[in-house]
Write a structure and sequence with these properties.
The protein is α+β, with helices and mostly antiparallel strands. The protein folds into 4 domains: 90 residues, Rossmann fold (3-Layer(aba) Sandwich), CATH 3.40.50; 69 residues, ATP-grasp fold, A domain (Dna Ligase, domain 1, 2-Layer Sandwich), CATH 3.30.1490.20; 127 residues, D-amino Acid Aminotransferase, Chain A, domain 1 (2-Layer Sandwich), CATH 3.30.470; 99 residues, Phosphoribosylglycinamide synthetase, C-terminal domain (Glycinamide Ribonucleotide Synthetase, Chain A, domain 4). Helix content is 31%, strand content 27%. The chain contains 14 helices and 21 strands. The strands form 5 sheets. An 8-stranded antiparallel beta sheet has the order 16-15-10-11-14-17-21-18, sandwiched between helices. It has a 5-stranded parallel beta sheet with strand order 3-2-1-4-5, with helices on both faces. Helix 7 packs antiparallel against helix 8. 49% of the residues are buried. The chain binds adenosine-5'-diphosphate and magnesium ion.
Amino acid sequence: MRILVVGSGAREHAMVWCLAQNPSVDRLFAAPGNAGIASEATCLPVDADDIAAVIELVEREGIDLTVVGPEAPLVGGLVDSLESRGYKVFGPSKTAARIEGSKAWAKDLMQRHGIPCAASRAFERFEDALEYLDALGGAPVVIKADGLAAGKGVTVAQDRAEAIGALQACLVDRAFGEAGATVLIEERLSGPEVSAFALTDGREVLPLVLAQDFKRIGDGDEGPNTGGMGAYSPVPLVDAATEGRIWDEIARATVRAMDAEGVRFKGLLYAGLMLTEDGPKVLEFNCRFGDPETEAVLPRLRSDFGELVLATVEGTLSSYKAHWTDEVSVTVVLASGGYPGEYRTGMPIAGLEAAGEVDGVVVFHAGTKERQGRVVTAGGRVLAVSALGATLAEARARAYEAVERISFEGMQYRTDIAARAAEEERS
Ligand SMILES: Nc1ncnc2c1ncn2[C@@H]1O[C@H](COP(=O)(O)OP(=O)(O)O)[C@@H](O)[C@H]1O
Ligand SMILES: [Mg+2]
């Protein structure tokens, strides 16, 4: 099999790394990939968002299976374009990807089918949104841009003024363009967050695992949001009964709801959840693997990832089970100085090999590239250091030991990834 992975982050590196272990994979390609992916796959300079160029690459290289990492090409219809030409591709159609591409669409679906989520209403006119805000009488709210906003479209408003500011930014100033032409005003929930990953061929749902990620730049969840600064899996805080409810009442119910409405979702369904006093509730869905959770999840997989991906594409998931190591995992992201604001690139990275020698550790590349035989930084998030261990404490210790072996100018990372969960695990 000749497989193409579309994307260039640590998520795609983890996928390529996992696929490379499959004996039926003859050749791996990535578009565009990065310096780490290049050690396992042939990287071709094709932008993940350039649908026409990806199709051309698939035709030219005789690709048997395309695996799409990021959301933008999914929401843009890459899967439909490849399938209509008879190619196999892992990921949802453009219509099914609306579950991530439009928060209003996802919310309507959940409300029609009784899937637990925060109450909310959608608005296109600023005046109407204000009127509703006033009718809520100061109840805490979250303002969400409807469409893809690269993780910047959500405001958990501390007061009325902040809520109005967010509505104004979306509806009046068009800070997110069309993505913010519709906004949701949502009831603010509270509780710990977890992410749930399931593979589905649109009928059968194969639950994978739960993970938790760390969105803020600083220790103790301080500072601005990022693409994700770390993750761990599984999540000891979630008991088996709650996990069962997540798979049945949320993942399976959502796939069934979509199928009932004629929208078959194929690929990876990611539910971002809050564990409230009334049980788990959906904050949002993503239509692809999460980053950095994937870097924590895939090293624990003991089943053949390529087979699971193919079964998802071919609609034969019912005959598969996913097997996992008993070990747990922790992933620490190393970012460029200044990220998530402005940062410089081109800094040489030292210590990659030594870091990879720590027991149980794999170093996945995010924003890296090769320049004159050296690996240099090429993005905001640069590396994702993942470690397995018997306990979260052990996985943490291994991950941070590897982190300390790596250096580049301006390197920053959180020191508290999975720290609280490791405490809970001990008690
Ligand atoms: N209804 C809500 N109540 C409280 N917090 C929320 C709510 N919705 C979202 N959040 C917070 O905002 C973050 C981002 O929201 P999310 O819907 O996941 O959008 P995105 O990931 O597209 O930015 C969540 O991870 C959560 O911390
Ligand atoms: Mg989210």
